[in-house]
Amino acid sequence: MSDNPNDSQNAANEAASRSDSRHLARASLLVVGAAFIAKILGTLRDIASAAIFGANRAMDGFAVARTFPDMISTWVEMPVRSAFVPLFTRTMHEKGEAEAWRAASNILNCLVVFLAIVVVLLVVGAEPLVKAMSPGFQDEAVWQESASLTRVLVLSILFSVMAVILASLLNIYRRQGLTSLGQIANGAAVLVGVVWLGPKLGLHGFALGILAGAIATCIVQAQVIWRHRSMYQFVLQPRAPEMRELLVLALPLFIGLTGTRIDVIIDRIFVSFLNAGDLSVMIYAISVANVAADMVLSVAQAVLLPHFAHLVTQKRYDEVRRRLSQSIEGFLFLMLPMCAFLCGAALPIVNILFTRGKFTPENAALAAILLPLMALQAPAHGAGQIVAQAHIANGDTRTPMVIGFWRIGFKLVLSITLIPFLGIAGLALASSLSAWFRAALLWKRLSPELRPEGVRFATQAGRMLAMSVLGAVVVWGLSLLIPAHGSTAVRLAVVGALGALTLAIGAGGSWLLKVDVSQGVLRRLRKHR
Length: 529
Prior knowledge:
Blueprint: H1 5-53, H2 57-95, H3 97-124, H4 126-133, H5 140-153, H6 156-172, H7 176-201, H8 203-221, H9 223-227, H10 241-272, H11 278-289, H12 291-313, H13 317-344, H14 346-354, H15 361-375, H16 377-393, H17 398-422, H18 424-444, H19 454-479, H20 488-512, H21 516-527
Helix pairs in contact: 1-7, 1-12, 2-3, 2-5, 2-6, 2-10, 2-11, 2-12, 3-6, 4-5, 6-7, 6-8, 6-12, 7-8, 10-17, 11-15, 12-13, 12-16, 13-15, 13-16, 13-19, 13-20, 14-15, 15-18, 16-18, 17-18, 19-20, 20-21
């Protein structure tokens, strides 16, 4: 045994790194598996809602109503979660678990009161808010229905935000299983709302399903409070030190997200002046485009932020760089072939998913145009979110804030330029280009101790991108030969074959070009044979 303290420390760091690797692998697989199930439920929900409700002005009104809870929830939960995780982790390391829970209890209680006030204000002001968000509708009946739906949907804000914050606590304790179960419970409840309540209550049944899903998720995540009930306290001290620290950490990111929220508002205002049903079709296209990205991003939110915060607290910056590089390359390895598939086989995918019931062939044709344009932003959005977790874990919430404003300005200029010529397709293209703009700036502004080696990363990403472009071209050519009609089973098999081909080209080409991620996957497969 060596008596050198440095040797002992190095051995301890290596052991910790191996333990972290095992945990990250298990947690990531668990989260991705649950997210996959939740996304299947979400896709079934979209298929059912497209067939039952179609794409029309009434559905556009529902999309506007749904914007409020989605926008406010993300606006609050992302900054609070991003500040809460490092604060709780640091307090637990420095002052112990009991003190961390005292601070967490106060934060949770104050957040419930704040959210209840926000919900009341939104219920009272539903009608003027809807009219401001969709001035192009010019239909009083649509506005009234949208306001009625808003009053139901905004009730979900309280439960969905609290579910996310409670899930952050579960992630800190490495209990990703419960957070994953919450996602599945949410997806199942919303699907029931569409399929069972939708035909009976119309769009209000859909809205009730969303509310039920938020409540079910919150109940599942609340297990963390029950498990630690001996340390949870019923305190309400908005002026306590932890609240001031939370605000200092969260406020810049909250302000930064203002740009993203303005982005959503501008989208809704622009689209309200376009054709009836355009907004609904765009929502369906976004849902399909984000299926794979959301699954991988759930890992970034549930696993990477607590892990990065833990490493930064211990000043293990070399490990942060390595994990950050691995995470982005792994995400691109999964997402680029999926993006290629969505771009190359857009029309067959849309036809098999949505062209039935009240969703017309004209709706499907527009969705097939929008799907590739929206899919192009998924790799950039995901990589940007992963890099943002490193900024936040390092205590830098200002950089994502500033870049958020740069992105909205960039997109606004592009939208104004492109919409007169391309309509809603111009808006979709502007969204994708602005996502790449944001990701590039986030990478460029990483602090030196966190930024991976640039030349190597660019080489790896370039090789994966080249193979994905090849896959998209091949699949697009083959998709032209697929008949639009035929049995669902046959068309599903053909689309599945195209997807498998795209993944094979991406993975096989990456292996031939010696991309590190593909080489690592191959080594693991050989090891477990």
